[in-house]
Amino acid sequence: MAKKGAQASPVVVVFFMFMFLFFSFVVSDNAEELELLSFKSSIQDPSGFLSNWDSSASYCQWHGVTCNNLSHVDKLDLSAKNLSGKLVSSSILHLPFIQTLNLSNNQLYGEIPKDIFSSSSSSLRFLNLSNNNFTGQIPKGSIPGLEVLDLSNNMLSGKIPLEIGSFYGLKYLDLGGNVLVGEIPISISNITNLQFLTLASNQLNGPIPQELGKMKSLKWIYVGYNNLSGQIPEEIGTLTSLNHLDLVYNNLTGQIPSSLGNLSDLQYLFLYQNKLTGPIPNTIFGLKKLVSLDLSDNSLSGEISELVIHLQNLEILHLFGNSFTGKIPKALTALPRLQVLQLWSNRLSGEIPESLGRRNNLTILDLSTNNLTGRIPDGLCSSGRLFKLILFSNSLQGSIPKNLSTCTSLQRVRIQNNRLSGELSSEFTNLPLVYFLDVSNNYLSGNVGDQKWDMPSLEMLSLAGNRFSGKLPHSFGSQKIEVLDLSSSGFSGTIPRSFGSLTELMQLSLCGNKLMGEIPEELSSCKKLVSLDLSHNQLSGPIPTGFAEMPVLGQLDLSENQLSGEVPPQLGKMESLIQLNISHNHLQGSLPSTGAFLAINSSAVAGNDLCGGDESSGLPPCKKVKNWWFFVICSLGGLVLLTVAAIGFIFIRRGNNLELKRVESEDGIWELQFFDSNVSKSVTVDDITLSAKQVNGICRGKSFVVKEIKEVNSIPSSFWSEIKRLGKLQHPNIVNLIGTCRSDKGAYLVYEYIKGKLLSETLHSLTWEKRRKVAMGIAKALRFLHSHCSPSVIVGDMSPERVIIDGKDEPRLRVSLPGQLSVANKPFNCSAYVAPEARESKAMTEKSDIYGFGLILIELLTGKSPADAEYGEQHQSMVEWARYCYSDCHLDMWVDPMIKPGHASNVNQSQIVEAMNLALHCTAGDPMARPSSTDVSKTLQSAFQMTSCVPTLKFSSTV
Ligand SMILES: *[C@@H]1O[C@H](CO)[C@@H](O)[C@H](O)[C@H]1NC(C)=O
Ligand SMILES: *[C@@H]1O[C@H](CO)[C@@H](O)[C@H](O)[C@H]1NC(C)=O
Ligand SMILES: *[C@@H]1O[C@H](CO)[C@@H](O)[C@H](O)[C@H]1NC(C)=O
Ligand SMILES: *[C@@H]1O[C@H](CO)[C@@H](O)[C@H](O)[C@H]1NC(C)=O
């Protein structure tokens, strides 16, 4: 047609050429130059880039201006020239022959001129206004010839205009990094030439339009960081040119469509941080060109298929933060380019494939917080590039493999909360680039103090909760250490003076070891120290006065040591100190009452020989010795007091001598015996017989409970001697027997009245801290009953019905009466708690008490009770179920949801795991395999002591 027209009228052509030349002459001489100058005058140019924009040279020579053959402005490139100001007029956009305008990376602001897209005849092909501070809406209109439109990283608001669909020529559209709202207009799918689409980082909502499926030229889709919802449209699977699909950080639901498997050119598939569910469709593993697959932080489930072997180009695989189960596929070991493998926070189990790393190119491996077992494979560092090794919170065992110890590329190593054992090899403590090393809460052993440490990059080190022996290392070969946690790790000896040279140190915890000697004054040279915990050791000598000179020290824990001398008064003048604990030492003298001592909790100063402080300290006031005669009078007074006390003591001893009282009443002669002299004065036979008829005997301010013994005359005398023995046993964790009262008409046992609830009623509402206290308290009571007295006292049918939780959350155990120990006499309705052998032999023993304790412990940990019917056909009993869970499932699967430890609290988690381990020992089928009550109590103490002691590291748990 065009050819035909040109042949038909040459005159017309000549005319048009003439007109063209005429206009270009007029325009170029004046209008274009004027437009440029007017633009210059409307903006600030502090860097002077536009300084040669004046009439001394032709505008074609001006900085940033490029002209075509006919001396018309063809391109204006003022990118990153530090220009600021408003674009008052759109005229430079309308320079008649301009094709390229780039004003990106300046500080232009205000609205984009409304008529910018109004002239559909505009010659513009390329418009880049990105990285400025433009506000307001995207102007309406269209330039059908525009190929590149980049308005990204401004502050544009409002909706994406529907007219966007009539930019038919666009190949590249970037509206990302604004504050656009509303839905993605369906009209956008009319831009069928579009190859690159970015709407990321806005506030768009609604669905991803299925019409995107019409945009067959698309190579990139990037709509992440919005609030898009609904499912991923299946139609995206028809965009076979797609190289890059990024829908991250939205609110997308449903399954990943299997149609995505048709995107045979796809190299990057990023769907992380959505709410996708279901399995990974197998078709995804057919995307042979995939370089990076990131589906992390969704709710995906199922197993990770061995089909992953087809992704031979894969370099990065992120599947963390989902609910994947099963094993880590062996096929991963055969991906030669695989560099980054992050599968953390799933429910993966089984072993790490043995050859992982050998034929890969690993740089980052993170498998933490799964339920992996077995050993750490030997070849993880075969690439020689591994720098992050994160395996914490699994159940890995065995030693740290030798090849990892020589992996000199390592920088960040977090293998805490496993069951690793063996020693840290000398190579391991000489890794040159490691800056973060956490091996805490394992079973590592050996004498690391005698070993050479040369880790010059080290900033954070935790060896806490292991079984090391010997002295603390003098140096770690690093001057950069900021956090040092060596708590609860079995160290002995003294605190090295050389720790004082760790100038960057901010947190130091040495608590729960067996450290002795004085606290070195040198520690106060650590001027950046914020938190210092030396508690639970055997440190002696004075509190260094130099501590008061530490400028940022906020937390100081010196409790449970043998420190002596006075509390340096300067400590009360430290402005930084907020939290202080000096309890349970041998400190004397007066407590300062200022600074951190103001309103100090009495428990933080208790267990010393201190006086003074302010009211909250709970300490007696200090008596000032004014002069000598005052002193003499005091001494004399003291003597008198002592004498009185001595007499009183003898008196009380006599009173305590369990004397029998005979009392006559209208019912006959009663024999009263009290085990607690306080009660004997205030309780009468009438009180007892009366309250036997009530539920709780509450009488004259004394509270007690009376239990009537039936058929008095058939009771053997051995019962009463046994009762007398019980009466002598008083312990804060048992319900103490305080007296008996008998005649030939009847007999009563008098117990202290505990205000509280049965454990069976209240267990489910207790926090982990309280449950811990309950477990510890019962263990202490058992230890007392079993080993304090000979022959030992058997509780009998241990069950949560036997435990009362008092007002202070302490458990109080009710001990069975002597006659009730023989199983024959008892209706075993709570028989679920009775050890199997006791059920058969009909005899209770210490070992059956331990069994019952084990069941209570399982109940405290899981919230389930042995009477529950839900263990199903697979597991005959709660014990069997617990045994299975402990070895085969993730902690989340069995721990009572009420006490589920958060992600951050690794300490709780390891306590729970250790307690469960103990519970399973206690419930061993073979009574001889069960620990003694002394062992139970010690194990619990050491498992739980960690908390009182291990500071929660302030380091982020992000990897
Ligand atoms: C961008 O514009 C906003 C709103 O007009 C203003 O508050 C902000 O300071 C500007 N930022 C820059 C870097 O000019
Ligand atoms: C998009 O194209 C369809 C037909 O293909 C047309 O009906 C519609 O009006 C177009 N929308 C825009 C905004 O151009
Ligand atoms: C995400 O989507 C769900 C359902 O599609 C909706 O209920 C929820 O409000 C959305 N969340 C946000 C933050 O928009
Ligand atoms: C291994 O990774 C490095 C970068 O870390 C890369 O340069 C090298 O080409 C990779 N080797 C293979 C076989 O992919």
From TrEMBL:
Keywords associated with the record: Leucine-rich repeat, Membrane, Repeat, Signal, Transmembrane, Transmembrane helix
Cross-referenced SMART domains: LRR_TYP (SM00369)
Classification via Pfam families: LRR_1, LRR_14, LRR_8, LRRNT_2, Pkinase
Keyword Amino-acid biosynthesis: no
UniProt entry tagged with the keyword Coiled coil: no
Residues making up the signal peptide according to the UniProt record: 1-31
Domain Protein kinase: 663-944
Cellular localization per UniProt: Membrane
Gene3D superfamilies named among the record's database cross-references: Phosphorylase Kinase, domain 1 (3.30.200.20), Ribonuclease Inhibitor (3.80.10.10), Transferase(Phosphotransferase) domain 1 (1.10.510.10)
Residues that span the membrane, as ranges: 628-652
UniProt name for this protein: Protein kinase domain-containing protein
Lineage of origin: Eukaryota, Viridiplantae, Streptophyta, Embryophyta, Tracheophyta
